[in-house]
Amino acid sequence: MNPGPGRPVLDRFRLDGRVAVITGASSGLGGACALAFAAAGADLVLGARRAERLAATVEAARAAGGRALAVPTDVTSPVDCERLVAAGLDQFGRIDVLVNGAGVASSVPARREEPEQFRRVVEVNLMGSYWMAQACARVMRPGSSIVNISSVIATTTLDAPQAAYTASKAAIEGVTRDLAQQWTGRLGIRVNAVAPGFVMTELTAGSEAYVHRVVARRALTGRCAEAIEVTAAILFLASDAASYITGCSLAVDGGMGVT
Question: Is the pTM of this model over 0.90?
Answer without folding.
Answer: yes
